[in-house]
Queue: 4 jobs
Job 1
Amino acid sequence: MPAGDQHGAPDATPSPGETPAPSSARVSPAAHTGPGPRGVPADTVRSLGLDALTMSVTAGDGLPELVWSQPPEGLGPELEELQFALGDGPTFEAAGRGRRVMEPDLAATDPARWPAFLPVAARTPARAVVAVPLRLGVAVIGVLAGYRTSTGPLTDTQRRDLTRLARTLLALLLDTVEVPSADGTGAPPGLALRRAEVHQATGYLSVRLGIPPGQALLRLRSHAAAHDVPLTALARALFAGSVLPEDFDR
């Protein structure tokens, strides 16, 4: 994953006459293996030289929402959850800047690039990352991210296949789903938002404390980090009454 590709690299914007992805990275209706984008072959992640693939869509508040991963548990969802909790990382950068992010060696990445994400990611098996924005014109409606447990760049073929897969998934999203709202509505079967509770807790806290939603989410994140609990668990605790809105009014 050459570092130079992080600036001006191709994204997943559809282009006329795009050559279909090779069979290893092509979405095929006959290859559906479970919840998620129909037909993504089970060996796609390996054929791309990766250990985890994730797809996020931007919800009504603009934050990347994890809707699918291969494999469904483990490294990919863990890293996406960390980024959501921290508000920092490659998926957030790809979504915010609308350009591909490629880092072949996370340990050698400039610490100033992702100051919150990198120290935490170093405690996971992740060693390299690539994130491709799913763009519709100038609008980013999602991100396809790949993670690997070894350092080093993808091959040219793997990079092309990843871009083609991203374009195929973008077309699938546009064909099957309206971009979900922050409360989790609008997601298609198999692509349910995983953080609806966090969004609901953010709205609840915003109303109770009389602060903007963005500030409410920051307080949730700060509280979760200070007490070393996942955001989703904190949101549930807030609704269960074991954590009070006043606990965040500081």
Note: Strands lie at 52-58, 64-70, 101-103, 128-136, 139-148.
Job 2
Amino acid sequence: MQNLTSKKSLVNVLGVVYVHTKTSDGGDLYLTRFAEPYAEHFEIDNWYERNWFNEHKIRLIGTSSVYRVPTKEINGESLDLVVKNCRVGEDVPIETHTLQEFCDAEFNSPWEEFALVMEMQEGLYGPREIKVKTQQPLAIYVPPEKMQPWQSGRSRSKINRIRAKTPGIDLDILKQYKLIYKWIKGKNLPEVFERIDMDDEEITRHLKAINYQALSALGRKGYLVADMKPEHIIFSEADALRIEETGRSQNNIDAYKRQVELLYQLIKDGHYSVVDYELLLRTVEHDNEVKNSRRHHYLDDQRDRFKPTSLPAHLKRIEIFGVPYIYGHAESTGGHLWVVGENARLFDYFLPERWRKTPSLKLSDKKEVFYTITKDNIHLVWKTSR
């Protein structure tokens, strides 16, 4: 059987670097930096072998196919994974009021979702005192099998709209994309309230209030979740136990009040995690700032394009006819990219997904020469070599 690490390459998709490998079943596996040290755990036989997966999977609450499953033990260690099917291109089954507020909501592609989660973990936008804790994004697995069109549940028009948002990212409408996250040990908000002695009406009121507070904190950090639910708010095992033990006070009359106060304090202090990112997106203000920031950084880097910078592992320096280039693989199209200079930071600006399908103006009737403004607000002229 082919070993996972026998053929691997580093690829960059939407700013996230993956170790890409072909799996023993002929599929594709993309490991993030969090998963790469555990590459052997992600060999297909160690988590997705049919008998193992069916015997050990636990279906999680939700409208999509989401499972918790452990890997087999490797060197005495097993990983708890959350495996979910990406619903990119499918209809969004959310409530009417949510649809009215997020009428353009679309399920993220796997690449968009991981990129946004990584960005949210870094927390560079918004108040520094607010930290959004998330699951660790580990891997994207693309099985080799293709579905029939009627099986996919995907709309070609939706896929085309997503391609327009992230030009150059190739999505196969007939393939499954499985996103793999690390399991967070703890309890979600409704599970915590199961240990608080109060009536259903009061519980519902607090669930809505706490959900709103968590959503507001996300908004201050520059993000929105179109289907935020109390089930998406996770407290650690230690904090869940603290809340439960607070309810065992001798003065049982007021115990539930102290439990609720502790819950609100944990939310205020950011002692919780948010899960489920398939409808995660940036706020308009944040998205505009990201674009403007990238343009400003681009101008600085272009000015210093011949000053050597540190080189990421997935890029190389080469020289052709005396001209220095930064060279790398363009995973989104399967092509190769050479960027003039020695500043490795420039490479991402010229990835095809940043400019290949943005609106363009043809500058010649005889040649393929086009003017476009890239997704980073960079004015670019590109042409096909003859």
Note: Confidence is low (pLDDT under 50) at residues 1-5.
Job 3
Amino acid sequence: MIEVEKMGKPAVPIVSGRFEDDALASSRTFGMPDLQFVIVPRIYRNLADDLCVSQTEDAIDDLIASLTSDGTQAVQSESDESTLRFEGEDRYDAVLKMNQEFTARDWSDALPVLPPTREAVENLIEGTNLNGNDVVCDMPPGFGIATVEQIAINSAMAGAKPEHMPVIIAAIKCLSVTGGHGGKSMLMSTSPQAPMLVVNGPIARRIGLNGGSALG
């Protein structure tokens, strides 16, 4: 729908209520944060024909209103803060507050992350022969620019070490060319599928990658 809108053709997607947050995130990611859409209660897949018809008919007035409006709506701007500071009674409390804030901003999936401090990020960059602002690739599905520094920031939150960076960067390059249409279908699908990365050879042993059976 975003591509249709960019061609100058009015378009209003119909979105199941369960996917409203996904629709908002996608519209921001693909450069049209003010894209209007109409919410329906049920997912169309596997929905009985009569229910598909009835919920679409119920949405017709909203569709017409969206198509004939000026298309403007308030959009919450993203924070442009380059550095965040978290304070607490001790380091644990500060890290806990950071995790709570990151989860609230949808920067994590609520699993614990480590602070991507400037020192930690620079330490990871030193594990490569690249500069922090070097571009590695366009990263699907949103096609943001993945620089070495940005990869290091994410790696720091996951607890990576400098010697892991060459493998992480190679993995990012692989993911950037996954599947057709820039990997959108695979990386954005709600179906049970995911890309698989295989790390093999001396590098796996050198960085201590956990492999083999659970018995060692």
Note: Residues 2-68 form one domain.
Job 4
Amino acid sequence: MSSMRLVGFDPAGRPVLSLPIYYDVQESRVRLDTFIGVAKQYEILIHILAEEIFGQQIVIQVYVLPPEEGSLRQVLGVVVVAGMGGILGTGGWEIGRGFINGLTGQSPEEWSQQLGEELREMLSSEADESAPTLQQEGPDFELQQVVELTSAVVEVGQHFASNTTRDLVSAGINPEQYADAFNAKTKLFQHVEVDIQINGIGFGHEREAPIRREDFGKYQIHTKREDEPDEWILETVTYRVSSPNWDRYDSRRKWKGRDREGGVVYFVIIDDAFWELANSGGLDSNVIDELVAQVAIKVTDGRKGERYVLKVIRFNDKPISKELSPTELGEFVENRRSQSGFHDQGSLL
């Protein structure tokens, strides 16, 4: 059953659906920049997902609603203000039906049954003077459609925020295909993570925070759109490693070391041969390890950024992978980019 709630109507008679955020904190407070930052990023995420669902831009207004008394809940209200003209009466959500079903496990029709009951109660309630008058003809049916389409936006937003990157990838929602949505969600969780008072967070109506602080990294990933070109350079480097990360699937923390010039570098190792040896106990690590490798480095505005170790030639005194020729290295890079980008598959999950 849907977790959405129709909470009323705005001054123009448009339905308002709630989008709650529950914080697990010892004291009844969160930082102001956390409150504002999370709400803003959730709003951005909702706009991005709405465009993904309907294939066109719609105008959405997000309100801050009063929380339940005594709760640690931040409640947002979502209203579709404009842009529905090309959707109503056309089965507009058909564009995103596969996206919706894959993410939520429900079809829009399943939501409409519950929401229809809520809508009838709201329209017939004398206590809600802002609600439109109940009609038996066209306007009432159109209002029902607006509620259903707004609910699609709310439900998808709640599910997208609540699922780990691994779960979204398993549902066929690829970070490269939906880069803007994944990046907005990452920024949302970063606002939560920097507030050390918050032990967990939840996006449902229940007073629960199932997403615990130690798992925040599973909901974050920095990615790019499929059509966004990269500028990369390839180098053979020697790094002196001071802080390794032996968990290949930990996307939060990178390897840390220094290059020959003494500069601090952070990098990810995606060499399968290296990880096979590491997992089988075939590598000896010291306080400071020396790594000789072929590396792909992303360049942005003339500055070196993300580093991916493609082939570890030597780890301390142990040979690992054969050094590739420039031609072989170019082919290797193109194959990686065409399959999953430079991201290690583990780092995506």
Note: The mean pLDDT is 78.
